[in-house]
């Protein structure tokens, strides 16, 4: 990615397709000159605007022209440096929507001297010009892609600098300790002690504890950012496709009494409790001589292996003995930490009939020990909404997501793998520092460990970075942001 901040860049910032307006953004030293060459007060294209005469954050109506004909009537918004998104002179042209008009205006801007912006280059310039740190820049991409309230809230907190505040606060603590340690080194011959080693040890342990509590939020953060990979699995005719359709409130999957109807997985998105579930309906699990069905079953197992959560359906209408075998099968083949066994068709069921309530676990039932002792088994009937609601609650509980959308103002949840790695490396350096103290090693070694931890923290906010990291981050942005 180009790091030249002396040129002027431009891009369409609104999504492609038809709409009310399209926004073309220009940033750089020549933004005003380029726009003045194409923006006119009248539809004859004679009297151009002198935009440099106007104040920042003002909007002006006029006409975009290539010098021969009018392209569109537009609004031009002025943002003078440094009070703009990128910290440079920025112009935003709001034209009528549609790919043709926006692209024609962009082409004209490029002819007049701008360069087409690369993905994320506006935000990268904002970072390089000190308008935001790297963690906040990454939050911009997360905010754009957020699909739920929890994802939006997490992105806003990071954009506001909550993670950066934590990082800077801990950095200040480590810097203070490091300064005293290094000051002692300057007076080594006088054998002066500016800070007690047990105090340094305690401070390091407290910082490690705080960072580890933040690191532990990554699993929830990953769910907020990417969603839960949920797979509905089970034998043929266990009700997988019916449950899939019921959750989506649409007839997305084919439902039939004929075994083997679903021969490949089907995927859709669903929001439950403010969390995105990437829902997959799979082929019925059984041995089959049908080549196509066997391939579908193979793919089903592949999806099951990748899943964060598995709903394993057991047809309760098949009877108690069949249920026992199904439970044994699920225990043998699936990770129980992410599997919810579910008795489907409980309105037709022959398991503990009359004793098991739909939407309830089998806790307390004693008719058959193999099934009734399983406290995590859920009974559902698509004829009773409350049983499905109980299943949804069990899904959130299984992943410890019951309170993930509750208002926890100020709480930091990390959603970015890069941040987690940096924090883990920081903790590793601090543990090395603690070990150095325990071994009674000199301050030189302790200083190295503490400075390493500072470097790892600095990578989060971009105070310590390199071109490869920046390129990797910003190439995932959309063009125009």
Describe this structure in words.
The protein has 481 residues and is of the alpha/beta class. It folds into three domains: 9-132, Probable tRNA modification gtpase trme, domain 1 (Gyrase A, domain 2, 2-Layer Sandwich), CATH 3.30.1360; 139-217 and 413-462, Four Helix Bundle (Hemerythrin (Met), subunit A); 228-398, 3-Layer(aba) Sandwich (Rossmann fold). Helix content is 43%, strand content 16%. It has helices at 31-36, 99-111, 121-128, 134-145, 149-159, 162-186, 197-215, 218-226, 240-248, 291-306, 320-333, 369-372, 385-398, 417-438, 443-461, 467-474; strands spanning 9-12, 21-27, 39-40, 58-65, 70-79, 90-96, 115-116, 228-234, 266-272, 275-281, 309-315, 339-344, 378-379. It has a seven-stranded mixed β-sheet with strand order 3-4-5-6-2-1-7. A six-stranded mixed β-sheet has the order 9-10-8-11-12-13, with helices on both faces. Helix 6 (162-186) packs antiparallel against helix 15 and helix 14 runs antiparallel to helix 15. The radius of gyration is 30 Å and the shape is flat. It starts with 8 loop residues before the first strand and ends in a 7-residue tail after the last helix.
């Amino acid at each position: 990615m180009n790091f030249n901040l002396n040129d002027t860049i431009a891009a369409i910032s609104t999504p492609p397709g038809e709409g009310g307006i399209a926004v073309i953004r220009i940033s750089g030293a020549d933004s005003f000159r380029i726009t003045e060459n194409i923006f006119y007060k009248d539809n004859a294209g004679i009297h151009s605007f002198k935009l440099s005469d106007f104040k920042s954050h003002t909007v002006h109506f006029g006409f975009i022209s290539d010098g021969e004909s009018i392209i569109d009537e537009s609004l031009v918004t002025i943002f003078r440096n440094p009070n703009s998104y990128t910290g440079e002179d920025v112009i935003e042209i709001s034209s009528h929507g549609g790919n043709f008009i926006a692209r024609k205006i962009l082409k004209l801007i490029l002819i007049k001297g701008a360069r087409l912006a690369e993905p994320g280059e506006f935000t990268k310039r904002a970072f390089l010009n000190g308008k935001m740190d790297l963690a906040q820049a990454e939050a911009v991409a997360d905010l754009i892609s957020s699909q739920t309230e929890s994802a939006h809230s997490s992105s806003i907190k990071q954009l506001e600098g909550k993670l950066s505040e934590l990082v800077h606060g801990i950095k200040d603590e480590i810097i203070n300790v490091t300064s005293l340690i290094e000051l002692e080194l300057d007076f080594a011959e006088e054998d002066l002690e500016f800070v007690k080693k047990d105090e340094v040890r305690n401070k390091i342990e407290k910082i490690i504890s705080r960072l580890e509590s933040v690191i532990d939020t990554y699993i929830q953060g990953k769910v907020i950012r990417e969603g839960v990979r949920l797979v509905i699995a089970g034998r043929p005719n266990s009700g997988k496709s019916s449950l899939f359709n019921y959750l989506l409130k649409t007839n997305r999957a084919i439902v039939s009494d004929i075994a083997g109807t679903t021969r490949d997985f089907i995927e859709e998105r669903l929001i439950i409790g403010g969390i995105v579930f990437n829902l997959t309906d799979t082929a019925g699990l059984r041995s089959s001589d049908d080549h196509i069905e066997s391939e579908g079953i193979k793919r089903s197992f592949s999806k099951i292996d990748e899943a964060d959560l598995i709903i394993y359906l057991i047809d309760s209408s098949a009877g108690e003995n069949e249920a026992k075998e199904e439970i044994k099968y699920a225990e043998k083949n699936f990770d129980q930490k992410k599997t919810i066994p579910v008795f489907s068709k409980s309105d037709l069921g022959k398991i503990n009939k009359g004793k098991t309530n739909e939407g309830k676990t089998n806790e307390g039932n004693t008719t058959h020990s193999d099934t009734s002792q399983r406290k995590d088994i859920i009974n559902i009937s698509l004829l009773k909404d409350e049983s499905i609601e109980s299943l949804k609650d069990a899904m959130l509980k299984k992943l410890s997501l019951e309170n993930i959308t509750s208002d926890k103002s100020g709480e930091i949840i990390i959603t970015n793998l890069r941040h987690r790695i940096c924090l883990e490396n920081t903790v590793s350096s601090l543990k090395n520092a603690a070990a150095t103290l325990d071994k009674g090693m000199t301050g030189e070694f302790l200083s190295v460990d503490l400075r390493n931890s500072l470097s790892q923290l600095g990578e989060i906010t971009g105070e310590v970075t390199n071109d490869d990291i920046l390129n990797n981050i910003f190439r995932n942005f959309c063009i125009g942001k």
